[in-house]
Design a protein that fits this description.
The structure holds three protein chains of three kinds. Chain B is mainly alpha-helical. Chain B has 16 helices and eight strands. Chain B has one domain. Chain C has one domain: Alpha-Beta Barrel (TIM Barrel), CATH 3.20.20. Classes of the chains: A alpha/beta, B mainly alpha, C alpha/beta.
Chain lengths: 214, 399, 285
C-alpha cells in the first residue's frame, strides 16, 4: 500500500520554504511547496509557514488567491500546521505596521510583545520551553504535544504574539521576561505554534512526526 | 628649474621592455633578478614548488639545524646567536624558536625604522617582553634624513637608507661581540623570486653580506655622489664614526671573526609568513595593524615604519611592482589564495597611495609636495606608464 | 526567565574551507565546514553562524552551496554573513536555507538598507554585525571588510542607530580579542547591552570556559558566538589533512600542534559548566 504521505507547504512567496521542506523530507514525507489550490487540497497535510510582516503576508495571500486553499483545506479535517507568522495569520487581525485583517480562522488578535512588558528584549529569540495546558476538546486524537516533556526547548524568533479570544483554543504558553504568552493553539485539526519545529532539532522533528503521523 | 636625477641606480637600466605576468602568481618580469621559464612561470613559483613540495625532507633539515646550533650554543653566559629583529612576525618567530625550542641564547638587534609607527613600537616592545635582550640602534638623525632624501632622489627609494643599516648592523655587532651566528628568517631573494643559486643552501657566505641590496650603487659611491651634487648634504652633517653601521665589516674581517654569513631559518623550517603571524600572536603578543595596511590587503606585514609605504609606492612607480603584488604572490605560492583572488586583490589595492603618513614623509625628507611629485615622475619608466586625461596609468596592468 | 542562553559556534569560511584567524586576520585552515557543523549540531549547538570572511574583500559571496547542504541535515537556525549587499542577496541566502542574515559592510555604507531589509524580511531576520576596534582614546570604532577598513563610526551611537532602523539583533565582535583567547571585552559588552533593547550576541576572545561564564552571568546577553574554543577542540580528534588541492593554509593542520592560548572545550562541557552555575542552557539529550 504505502502511498507516500504528502504535505503541502503553502507558498505565499514570502519566506524560507526550504527549512520546513528539508525537515519534512528528512522525516520521510513527500513535500510540495505550492500555491496551487488543487495540489494543496489533495495533500494529506498542509503547513502555513512564515517569517516577515503580517500585512505583507496577507497581501501576498490575497494576490495568490490562497485564502480559499487554506480555509478549504482546514475544512477537510486533515492535519493543518501554522508556524510563526503562519500562526498569526490564522487570527482575526494584527496591528503590525498597520491594522490588518487576517484569515479569521481563530478568534483573537496579534499584538506586539511590548504590550505585555516594555522592558523585555524584542524580538524574543532563542530556545524557550512551553507549558502545555490541559485540553478537553481534543478531536480525533489529534494531540501533537501529547508526548511533550516540559523540559524540552524549542526555537522562537518573533516580536509579535497571539491573544486568542477563546481560552479553550490555547494549547501551550511560554514564559519570557516574567510574562506568559500563548505559544501554540489546538483547534480541531489545526495545530499552530509560535516556535519553529523545523528549527528545533530533534524535539521539533518529533512534533512534526506527531502532527502528520497518520 | 626641474629636478634631474643622476644614473647611479643601475637596476632600472636593465628592465625588460616587454611586460609579462607570471601564469601562476601575480609577479611581473619587471622585478629585478627574476626570470620566467618557457611556460611563463617565474622563478619564485618554481622555487616554491620545490620548497613547499614533498621533495624536502624536513626531518633531515631539522637534524641539520640542531647540529648547527649544537656547535654554537654557549653555556658560559654569552650570547651565541644574533637575530636581526624588528619585532615583527618573522624575526619574532625566529628569535622565539631559537630561544624556547632550541635553547639558544639569542641577542636580538634592531636597526631603527626611519620613524616608528605606534603599532610597530608596541610590537617591538612586546617582543622584548616575550624574553629577549635587545640592542636598538638609531643612527644620526640629521644625517640619516639627508641620506634618505638622497636615496629618494637618486635611487628612487628613501627607504634604501634603512636597508643599508639593516643589513650591516647585525654583522657589525656580531664582530664586536664575538657572536659567530647570525640568523635571518627567509632568504628574500629565493622566496620572492630571484636567484636560485641559494635555493638549497642554509646560508649565504660572508662575501654576500650587503651585496645585492645596493641597487648598483655601493654606499660610499652613493655618499660621494650626494656630497658632490646635493646642496643639502655636506661633511658637516656626519662624522666618520657615524658611518660605522652603514657598511658591514669586510669579508676578511667577517671570516677572521668566524662569522659564517647569513643563515636562514626558512631552510630548516617550511616558511609561511602567515603562520609566523599566528605564532607571534600566540607567543610574543604580536598585534596586527588596527587597519588595513595601505597599498595591500594584509594587516600583519611590515608595520613598523611610517616611511615604509613610500618604499613600496616608489617601487610601484619604478617597476610597476607594488606591495599588494608581492604579498599576493607569496600567498598564492603558499597555497593560501588562488591566482584569481590575487588578481582581484591587486585590482583593488595595488598602487594605493600611502596617504596616511605622507606629511610625515615630506617632513622627514624636508621636501615639498611639489618636489615629491617631481622626483616621482622622473622614476616612471616610459615603457610602463602613460598619461591618460591627465592621470598616470600602467600600460600593462595585471591580467 | 526561561529563555536559554544561546551557544552559537561561529564558522569562518573561505571558499570550501573553514578558517580561523586572530584579530580577524589570517586564513589558517582547520578543516571542512560540513564536518564541524555536523559535530556541533550533535553536541547541542543552539544555532550556527557562518561568515564568509573574504566576501567583501573579493566582492563575492559563496556560501549558498554550503548552506543548502547543511540545511538538509541540520535542523537548528543558520545565520549567514559576509557579502550580503542587497535585497537579492538576502533573498538568495534565505532560499538556500539560511534563517537569518548578518550584515556589516553594506549596512555601514548604506544604513537605509537595514530598514528596507527589515521591512521586507522581518526585523528578526536581520542581524547587524559590528566589528569593534578600540582606539587610543578608549572609544571604539566600527570596522568593515572583516576588520580591514575603519568606518569612522563610533560603536555606541552606531548600535543605537541600528536599533532605530529596525534590525532584530546585534552581533558584536571584539576584534582586539578575537582569536587571542584572552577573554571578551566586558566593558564594551555592557555598554552595548545598556544602549539597546534588541538581543545582543557577543563574539571574540573566549579562550576558556570561564570567560563565557563571566560574561553571561552579569550581562543580559542573548547569546555567545564562539569559534577558537570549539574549533581547536574539534580538531584534537578530527584532523582532515587532505582535500585541499585547490587552496588552503594547512600548515597548522599538518603540524599536529596544539594552541597554547586556548583551553579548547566542547559545547557539551561548556553547557554543563554553565548549568552548574545556574545559567539556563538547552541540553539536547
Amino acid at each position: 500500500m504505502n502511498k507516500p504521505y504528502k504535505i503541502a507547504v503553502i507558498d505565499y512567496q514570502m519566506s524560507n520554504m526550504f527549512s520546513i521542506k528539508n525537515a519534512l523530507t528528512a522525516l520521510g514525507f513527500e513535500v510540495e511547496v505550492t500555491s496551487d489550490y488543487s495540489t494543496i487540497i489533495s495533500c494529506d497535510g498542509a503547513i502555513l509557514p512564515g517569517v516577515g510582516s503580517f500585512p505583507e503576508a496577507m497581501k501576498h495571500i490575497k494576490e495568490l488567491n490562497l485564502e480559499a486553499s487554506i480555509i478549504d483545506f482546514i475544512a477537510s479535517g486533515k492535519p493543518f500546521l501554522g508556524i510563526c507568522l503562519g500562526f498569526h495569520l490564522l487570527f482575526d487581525k494584527s496591528n503590525e505596521i498597520e491594522d490588518t485583517f487576517g484569515l479569521g480562522v481563530i478568534p483573537g488578535e496579534v499584538k506586539h510583545l511590548s504590550v505585555l512588558n516594555e522592558e523585555i528584549r524584542i524580538p524574543h529569540v532563542g530556545w524557550n520551553k512551553i507549558q502545555k495546558k490541559q485540553k478537553h476538546n481534543i478531536k480525533n486524537n489529534f494531540d501533537p504535544l501529547k508526548k511533550l516533556n516540559e523540559q524540552e526547548y524549542f526555537y522562537f524568533i518573533h516580536s509579535f504574539y497571539v491573544e486568542p479570544e477563546d481560552n479553550n483554543d490555547i494549547y501551550s504558553t511560554t514564559e519570557y521576561g516574567g510574562i506568559n504568552f500563548c505559544s501554540s493553539i489546538l483547534k480541531d485539526n489545526i495545530f499552530a505554534c509560535q516556535f519553529h519545529p523545523e528549527k528545533s532539532g530533534r524535539k521539533g522533528a518529533n512534533i512534526l512526526s506527531e502532527i502528520f503521523n497518520r | 628649474m626641474g629636478f634631474k636625477r643622476g644614473n647611479i641606480e643601475k637596476q632600472v637600466n636593465v628592465m625588460p621592455k616587454n611586460v609579462l605576468w607570471c601564469k601562476k602568481c601575480v609577479l611581473s618580469n619587471q622585478r629585478p633578478r627574476i626570470t620566467f621559464d618557457e611556460d611563463g612561470v617565474c622563478t619564485g613559483c618554481r622555487n616554491a614548488v620545490y620548497k613547499n613540495g614533498s621533495q624536502i625532507d624536513w626531518n633531515l633539515r631539522e637534524k641539520e639545524l640542531v647540529k648547527l646550533l649544537d656547535q654554537h650554543r654557549r653555556d658560559d653566559g654569552h650570547w651565541d646567536v644574533i637575530v636581526p629583529s624588528s619585532g615583527g612576525k618573522d624575526s619574532g618567530y625566529v628569535a622565539h624558536q631559537l630561544r624556547y625550542k632550541y635553547g639558544m641564547n639569542p641577542l636580538t638587534v634592531t636597526w631603527s625604522p626611519l620613524q616608528y609607527t605606534d603599532i610597530g613600537f608596541q610590537n617591538f616592545q612586546s617582543c622584548i617582553d616575550a624574553g629577549f635582550t635587545n640592542l636598538l640602534c638609531t643612527p644620526n638623525g640629521r644625517f640619516q634624513r639627508k641620506l634618505a632624501r638622497l636615496c629618494f632622489e637618486e635611487l628612487g627609494d628613501a627607504f634604501h637608507v634603512f636597508v643599508l643599516g639593516q643589513s650591516a648592523y647585525p654583522f657589525q655587532m656580531a664582530k664586536r661581540l664575538g657572536i659567530k651566528l647570525v640568523f635571518y628568517g627567509e632568504n628574500g631573494d629565493v622566496d620572492y623570486g630571484g636567484d636560485p643559486e641559494y635555493l638549497d643552501k642554509p646560508c649565504k657566505p660572508s662575501s654576500e653580506v650587503g651585496k645585492q641590496i645596493s641597487k648598483g650603487a655601493p654606499f660610499r659611491e652613493l655618499l660621494d655622489f650626494g656630497l658632490k651634487n646635493k646642496d643639502y648634504l655636506s661633511s658637516d652633517d656626519f662624522t666618520e664614526a657615524d658611518l660605522t653601521f652603514y657598511e658591514p665589516p669586510s669579508t676578511e674581517e667577517l671570516t677572521q671573526s668566524g662569522i659564517q654569513g647569513m643563515h636562514y631559518f626558512s631552510y630548516y623550517h617550511k616558511w609561511s609568513p602567515q603562520e609566523n603571524y599566528y605564532y607571534c600572536a600566540e607567543h610574543t603578543g604580536f598585534k596586527p595593524n588596527p587597519e588595513r595596511t595601505e597599498g595591500t590587503y594584509s594587516k600583519y606585514a611590515s608595520l613598523d615604519d611610517k616611511m615604509d609605504g613610500f618604499h613600496y609606492y616608489l617601487r610601484y612607480i619604478k617597476f610597476g611592482l607594488g606591495r599588494c603584488m608581492e604579498e599576493a604572490a607569496h600567498e598564492i605560492r603558499d597555497g593560501h589564495i588562488t591566482r584569481e583572488e590575487g588578481v582581484a586583490l591587486m585590482n583593488r589595492y595595488e598602487g594605493e597611495f600611502p596617504k596616511k603618513y605622507f606629511k610625515d614623509f615630506l617632513e622627514y625628507l624636508d621636501i615639498t609636495e611639489a618636489h615629491f611629485w617631481e622626483v616621482v615622475d622622473t622614476w616612471r619608466a616610459p615603457h610602463l606608464w602613460r598619461k591618460v586625461d591627465g592621470n598616470w596609468e600602467l600600460k600593462h596592468p595585471i591580467k | 526567565m526561561s529563555l536559554a542562553l544561546r551557544i552559537i559556534p561561529r564558522l569562518d569560511i573561505k571558499g570550501p574551507n573553514l578558517v580561523k584567524g586572530i584579530h580577524l586576520e589570517g586564513l589558517r585552515v582547520l578543516g571542512k565546514p560540513e564536518a564541524f557543523a555536523k559535530f556541533y549540531y550533535e553536541q547541542g549547538a543552539d544555532e550556527l553562524f557562518y561568515q564568509d570572511v573574504v566576501a567583501s574583500l573579493y566582492g563575492r559571496n559563496s556560501l549558498q552551496e554550503i548552506i543548502s547542504r547543511t540545511a538538509k541535515e541540520i535542523f537548528i537556525p543558520l545565520t549567514v554573513g559576509g557579502g550580503i549587499r542587497n535585497i537579492e542577496d538576502i533573498s538568495n541566502m534565505l532560499q538556500a536555507g539560511a534563517d537569518k542574515v548578518s550584515i556589516n559592510t553594506s549596512a555601514i555604507s548604506n544604513p537605509e538598507f537595514i530598514g528596507l531589509a527589515s521591512n521586507i524580511f522581518g526585523s528578526s531576520t536581520i542581524v547587524i554585525s559590528i566589528e569593534a576596534i578600540k582606539q587610543p582614546d578608549g572609544s571604539y570604532i566600527a570596522f568593515t571588510d572583516n576588520g580591514r577598513n575603519s568606518s569612522g563610526k563610533e560603536v555606541i551611537s552606531w548600535v543605537k542607530e541600528i536599533e532605530q532602523l529596525g534590525a532584530g539583533e546585534i552581533l558584536l565582535t571584539f576584534v582586539d580579542k578575537e582569536g587571542s583567547g584572552k577573554g571578551f571585552d566586558l566593558v564594551l559588552a555592557k555598554q552595548i547591552c545598556d544602549a539597546v533593547k534588541i538581543p545582543v550576541v557577543i563574539h571574540g576572545g573566549a579562550g576558556n570556559m570561564r570567560h563565557v561564564l563571566d560574561a553571561v552571568k552579569d550581562l543580559p546577553l542573548s547569546g555567545v558566538a564562539i569559534a577558537s574554543l570549539f574549533h581547536y577542540d574539534f580538531i584534537l580528534h578530527n584532523r582532515q589533512i587532505d582535500g585541499y588541492e585547490e587552496e588552503g593554509n594547512i600548515d597548522f593542520l599538518k603540524s599536529n600542534r596544539v594552541l597554547s592560548s586556548i583551553e579548547s572545550k566542547s559545547i557539551k562541557e561548556l553547557k554543563l559548566l554553565l548549568l552548574d552555575n545556574n545559567v539556563l542552557c538547552r541540553i539536547d539529550e
